Amino acid sequence: MAYCPKCGVEVDKNVKECPLCNFPIPDIEGMQENTEINKFPEARNMYIKTLETLRNKVFITVFLLSIISIVIFLTIGLIRSSISDYMTGFVICIMAGLIYLFIIMGYIPHLKIGTGIFSATVILQSFLLDYIDGEMEWSLTYALPITISAIAIFLLTVHFYKKGKHKNHFIFIPVYTAVGVGILSLIVESVLSINFDGTLKITWSLIVFITLQLFAVIMTGLYNVLPEDMREKMRRVFHV
Fold first, then answer.
1. What domain range is 30 assigned to?
2. CA dist 163 → 155, 156, 158, 167 (Å)
3. What's residue 111's pLDDT?
């Protein structure tokens, strides 16, 4: 039951005006509902929105500058009545770079799709650059096997990292990266030696591989011997 705030007479809850003194009766129930609804402000993460806005501005700026550069080079080529191989290669690299930037900046959220598009762009770019002079020389023998190997190692590294029990510990990011880079170095030297000398030779890549594997083992060992309180502090510092 409601009461008039001025004269104190008891009034019905739906009455908007006191029948005795004509004082307006406020809507107490409506005020209570609004108070309960707006008791806590809505939480909004403005930092993410700011990052997305900044990302879009950066990408649009780079995209426009790239298009302007392509138009300038093509205009120069038309004025000279010839487009050189360097101009063609420049245009190819700019277009491929825009695709790389689009993927790296996170516009494709799915990892496997983004990796597939990235690798396809690398292979297509190498083919186009190799075919500028009308001959396929290095793209099939060097670029293709190295690119496929790098993408396969990357996907396997990410897969094992996610499946591993330490996937939420920051220390294992450089560990898995070191293992993947070490394996890739062996493949790169193998491809180079086979195509240059016709035989398989492993020299510098073996040193790189052993060094990176030792680094991975040492980092893993150091982390495992740390007390739990220090691990927790490191997780909090690095937000992992």
1. 2-37
2. 12, 10, 9, 7
3. 86
